[in-house]
Amino acid sequence: MKLEIFGKNYEPSDLLKSVTEKKCEKLARRFSDDDNAQVRFNVVFENGLYSTTLVVTSRGQTYRAETQSTSPFDNIDVVIPKLLGQLKKQKDVWERSKKGAPAVYADMRVREEEE
Question: Whole-model pTM above 0.85?
Answer without folding.
Answer: no
